[in-house]
Amino acid sequence: MKFFLRARLVGSIVLALAFFLASPVLAQREYSYWTFGTGLGLAFDQVRGPVPAMNGSDAYEACTAVSDSAGNLLCYSNSVSVFDRNHELMPNGRAGLALNSSAAQGALLLRQPGSFRYYYLFTVGNAETGLVDGLRYTVIDMSLRGGLGDVVPSQKAVNVAPVGKVGEALTGIRHANGRDYWIVVRAWNTPDFRCYLFSPEGLAAQPVMSTLGLVHTGGLDNLYTSDETPAHFNSTGYLRASPDGRWLALTGGRLPVQLFEFNNRTGRVLRGQALSVPYSAAQPAGYGLEFSDDSSKLYATVNGTFSIYPYVLYQFNLTSYSPPVPLLTTQEILGALAKGPDGRIYLTSLCSPRLSVITRPNETGSACGLEVQTVAFGGTPRQGQCGIGLPNCPNAIAREVDLSTTVATMPNIITPNGDGLNQALVLAEPNPDEWSIAIYNRWGKEVHRQERYDNSWAAPGQPDGVYFYLLTRRSTGQTYKGWVEVLR
Fold first, then answer.
1. Residues forming a β-bridge with 448
2. Which residues pair with 446 in a beta bridge?
3. Is residue 52 within 8 Å of 73, Cβ to Cβ?
């Protein structure tokens, strides 16, 4: 079956105010230090790019790390233990967490919205132990031990209702309001997505439930054996949301890659479909997933039976009907895909001495610039080189947002297509030149600045998408922040 996907590039967009810039550049530094594999690490330097770094943990799959807004490492975890920035185990950072680190997205660290003191570690179980852990959270108080932080004993490995088995996929999706997150998991043996609101009040007691897609059930316990006993292998895989929050992709064992629409305001997962690949194995196993920065491409690693079928990295073009493009075919075991703060997508393969990287993920086919095993990492490998996991991060970083700040006199969409209607971003004020304006794309790059705004910005040379503006009244310093969608 061929791959067909109708891209919904034109449709309603419901966004709350999500602009929060205090400086011209939107930093994405909270996930700029990576820990993975057996003591391996990367630090993303703003000038030098990814450079080798230290890591005190072992993680075959599950791994996550979080830094402060300046990119300074705070803590990290392999779902079993929690380490501080000095690569030392936190005093309360071990017993009672996950049973082992062999869950695809077994750990996710997020700062609690509205706080710079508390961080939540979300964990899920793994197929090897029967998914018995379910979804749990652990709270880390970074004010303890002189800023080194520690796990709060009374809020350690807290079971999340409804208690029960969920798959190995776990992701965080930034809410449409720009401040909160959705914590998303896939239930086991039922076609349910569970989406929990994570806000300044903490984690919601009950999830938003969406029932659709293929049921994740059964599968081999081990990809590399011929054991046909139904177990939990189809729980392995990834959940990834596109940077714009409109798409949610899912893999799971021998089940096909699935793509769904997602409403990041309500937490509802909407209609979706399976994405077929031209693969020789009767039941190829999808694993790693990642979206390009512009949300137009989806990348997936698809694996066959070890030593019989090859491993393939595919690119799906979400703006066309074209079949997926195989970018890499190898006998090496391909694992996770993860987007770095530099916008490039990194790929791991088991026991590889280096990471591969997609340097231009927005581009189609071979133009995406895949470089195989060119990125060196740090640490002292003690057993092999890499596992098959890379750090779990949210699709976009939430910020401290004043949700009461709105601009009623600015449009939220312009259509500069030459028809004479709604061509420019117009400030409906008697004297718009009393205001200065700065406009940024959704990655924080400034695309326009004008000291005396003349109501003329029509996104020249910029693609369609959502942009954020900062208006400043020059006489008083009063500011307004908002967003506008460009749609031609």
1. 439
2. 440
3. no
Q: What is the pLDDT of residues 1-15, one digit of tens each?
A: 222 222 222 233 333
| Pair (200, 101) in one structural domain | yes
Q: Are residues 322 and 427 in the same domain?
A: no
Q: How would residue 400 be classed by pLDDT, with cut points 50, 70 and 90?
A: low
The pLDDT of residue 472 is 84
How big is the chain, counted in residues?
488
Q: Quick check: is 352 in a domain?
A: yes
pLDDT averaged over every residue in the chain: 85
Question: Six-digit token pair at 380?
Answer: 């002292």
Indicate whether 143 and 191 sit together in one domain.
Answer: yes
CA distance 77 to 57: 7
Which among 127, 165, 157, 125 has a CA at the least distance from the CA of 139?
A: 157
Within 10 angstroms of residue 381's Cβ, the number of other Cβ atoms is 15
Strand, helix or coil at 348? Answer: strand
Residue 160 tokens, joined: 């999340």
CATH of the domain at 424: 2.60.40
Nearest Cα residue to 32 out of 380, 393, 293, 360: 393
Q: Which long-range contacts (CB under 8 A, 24 or more apart) does 314-323 make?
A: 314/277, 315/364, 315/365, 315/368, 316/3, 316/5, 316/257, 316/259, 316/275, 317/364, 318/5, 318/7, 318/247, 318/259, 319/7, 319/9, 320/7, 321/4, 321/5, 321/6, 322/3, 323/2, 323/3, 323/278
Separation of alpha carbons 121 and 150, rounded Å: 12
Could you write out the DSSP letters of every residue in 42-89?
EEEETTTEEEE-----EESS--EEEE-TTS-EEEEE-SS-EEETTS-B
**Total tally of structural domains belonging to the chain:** 2
Q: How far apart are the first and last CA of the chain?
A: 33
The answer on 193 and 95 residing in a single domain is yes
pLDDT at residue 271 is higher than 60: yes
Reported as half-sphere exposure (CB side, CA atoms, 13 A), residue 150 has a value of 9
Token pair recorded at residue 224: 């590399």
Phi and psi at 433, nearest 5°, equal -75, -5
CATH, residue 220: 2.130.10.10
At 365, give phi and psi (nearest 5°): 60, -140
Host domain of residue 453:
413-486
Q: Is 147 helix (H, G, I), strand (E, B) or coil?
A: helix
Over pLDDT 90: what percentage of the chain? 55
Provide the 3-class DSSP secondary structure of residue 153. Answer: helix
Domain match, 456 and 365 both: no
